[in-house]
User: What shape does this take?
Amino acid sequence: MGFDTGSTGFMLIATSLVMLMTPGLAFFYGGLVSRKSVLTIMMQSFVSLGITTIVWFTVGYSLCFSGDVFGIIGNLDMAFLNGVTLDQSLSPTNNIPLIVFIAYQMMFAVITPALITGAFADRVKFKAYIIFLIAWLFLVYFPFTHMVWGGGLLSDWGVVDFAGGIVVHTTAGMAALASVFFVGKRKGASNIPHSIPLIALGTGLLWFGWYGFNAGSQLRVDGITAIAFLNTDIAASFAAIVWLILEWRHTGKPKFVGFLTGAVAGLATITPAAGYVSMQAAALIGISAGIICFYAVGLKNRLKWDDALDVWGVHGVGGITGVILLAILANPAINGVAGLIHGGYSFFFIEIAAVIFASAYAFFISFGLLKLINRFTPVIVDEEDQLIGVDSTIHEENAYLY
Assistant: This one.
């Protein structure tokens, strides 16, 4: 039997959209930092495209989706994509080429560690970042991908995560918080974005790519695909407007950056629930994201944590909030999963336990990893180099000639 050509075509487009999110993230982060570090933060995202692809091809896919070792990680039977053939389908339910699924999941692996970079902008050496990127994939991303999506421990518990609230946003957000505590505050850096148009461009690319991120996670074309697509836009729109209103109320001015940040918060928060909740619930999730993430960023500011680009407040808190709301609002009439309001009491506690476990694990492993790397090569950029700018001191390149 041949492949489902409609679903295959859609999944190739979805894969391309998720790939586009990494350059989108680079533009988003690039606009938020100062002029003297824009190339460094953008390069960190782009470099993940190259390095993570190589790691995914060699061992990453196999460790996530081949076999099972203690429910925590896969094996190396499919290293270098051994045994993958052109006519091999993903499953009878998802009759697309296995190769397409491999590529699709690879794009998730690419963007997840890139998200963390926003937390330590302006003050981490490039060599240390490369080591952290590779080690973090092995120690955090690959195990959680296997445990949730690869038939591992959390999957056996009954944990669901439609498109990465736990696997992507919770782990990256908590790793970002650990990074903030390890590297400390920036020296001489401004919290004023250097290019709001770049932020807007990045947000547009992220928003556009997120349709592939969420709708594509159904891995075929059906009604769940459609509702995940629409839920993504609903949540992002509600969160963006709520954030805009809250900041307008607090500052007396409507802020474009606030609107854009709110949209990303809504996108992160709907991610785990996109294919499990109604459109009305998606609106509630968007409103919740706008409120909770806005005040999480405010809390971070009051505590003087230098999470430079609010990775914890937007992605970490957003991902955790999305998982909790999934546990409450999941509608069995949509995709067979019952949240708390539909009588799914055990499912509620399983999801809460999973997100707590993911948060604690990602935080402590990331902090310990940075501490270990620092024993072999300095992680933090010297104060003088931070003041001059990491674009010049690390890369000898500048985004602008004047």
Notes: The first helix runs from residue 5 to 32. Residues 151 and 317 are 26 Å apart (CA to CA).
